[in-house]
Amino acid sequence: MIIDGKALSNQLDVNMKQEVADLNATGLYPTLVVIIVGNDPASQIYVRNKHRKAVKLGIRSIIERKPADMTQADLLALIAKYNADDQVHGILVQLPLPKQIDETAVIRAIDVKKDVDGFSPENVGKLFANSHEHYPVSCTPKGIMTMLDHYNVNPEGKHAVIVGDSNIVGRPMGALLLNAGATVTYTHILTQDLSSFTRTADILVVATGVAHLIKAGDIKPGATVIDVGMDRDENGKLVGDVDYDNAVRVAGNITPVPGGVGPMTITTLMQQTIELAKVANRRVLTSVH
Ligand SMILES: Nc1nc2c(c(=O)[nH]1)N[C@@H](CN(C=O)c1ccc(C(=O)N[C@@H](CCC(=O)O)C(=O)O)cc1)CN2
Ligand SMILES: [Mg+2]
């Protein structure tokens, strides 16, 4: 089966739009701030898509576009401004950042209660401790879990193999699958004989940035293959980390690029913005009574 992230995303939008309208009627306006520093063309597209999706759902969206030579101090001051603003529920700084800015310092500056990306040490800690509280999780792996659930791929007891060890995708992906009962193997750039691992995966998640790294022969017949890659082939066409045209004949389920994981990342961001707004509102109500 082709896992259609775009269709699922549009389907989830229907409920989210209604939920936002219902919250608006009670005086709560979920609000997301996205800060983008510099002119990376891909990042510009993602931020524009986030804004469009927010507008479509009735979520208030503030985009802060800043020059590539912005200082770290100025960025931290901007974050502090939105940390202090009660009307703002989620703050996201688009990654990657220009070289003069320390990513870790920026992530830590965002109020944990507004960390809609789930990148703060506190939220990452909750994920790896399998906390039963509500907490945001990196949107791409969280969106992948939503897709697996929707397509009835139950990770319990399955062997999940992650290719790529990034903080945004690989690491949180493995934690989510472990929490869902999978046996998880992490592989990365130093892994020897990668294929010997991927060929034993019931669920294979690939996030390396290497175009067509995974061939049909690297996949266990019937496996669920999730391709997080967004690479360019020799003709400049957008392709994934998986050789889709051949892999589709071996895999049981597979995500296309584009139209697979990407749209679910943005939908998950909207879900988490709404959730943070509701939690913030409950905090206000509790402190009043
Ligand atoms: N602060 C963050 N920075 C980054 C994140 C993130 O979750 N938080 N993730 C990625 C970029 N990203 C969202 O920010 C993102 C990437 C791709 C897509 C997407 O919809 N892709 C489409 C294809 C788009 C195209 O044509 O180029 C698809 O796969 O269908 C959405 C979000 C890094 N930075
Ligand atoms: Mg189901």
From TrEMBL:
One of its GO terms (biological process) is methionine biosynthetic process. Gene3D superfamilies: Leucine Dehydrogenase, chain A, domain 1, NAD(P)-binding Rossmann-like Domain. HAMAP family: THF_DHG_CYH. Residues 184-289 form the Pterin-binding domain. Its EC number is 1.5.1.5, 3.5.4.9. The keyword DNA damage does not apply. Belongs to the tetrahydrofolate dehydrogenase/cyclohydrolase family. Pathway: One-carbon metabolism; tetrahydrofolate interconversion. GO terms for molecular function: methenyltetrahydrofolate cyclohydrolase activity; methylenetetrahydrofolate dehydrogenase (NADP+) activity. NADP(+) binds at residues 164-166, 189. SUPFAM superfamilies: Aminoacid dehydrogenase-like, N-terminal domain (SSF53223), NAD(P)-binding Rossmann-fold domains (SSF51735). This is Bifunctional protein FolD. CDD domains: NAD_bind_m-THF_DH_Cyclohyd. Catalyzes the oxidation of 5,10-methylenetetrahydrofolate to 5,10-methenyltetrahydrofolate and then the hydrolysis of 5,10-methenyltetrahydrofolate to 10-formyltetrahydrofolate. GO terms for cellular component: cytosol. InterPro entries: Aminoacid_DH-like_N_sf, NAD(P)-bd_dom_sf, Pterin-binding_dom, THF_DH/CycHdrlase, THF_DH/CycHdrlase_cat_dom, THF_DH/CycHdrlase_CS, THF_DH/CycHdrlase_NAD-bd_dom. Homodimer. Keywords: Amino-acid biosynthesis, Histidine biosynthesis, Hydrolase, Methionine biosynthesis, Multifunctional enzyme, NADP, One-carbon metabolism, Oxidoreductase, Purine biosynthesis. It catalyses: (6R)-5,10-methenyltetrahydrofolate + H2O = (6R)-10-formyltetrahydrofolate + H(+); (6R)-5,10-methylene-5,6,7,8-tetrahydrofolate + NADP(+) = (6R)-5,10-methenyltetrahydrofolate + NADPH. The keyword Protease does not apply.
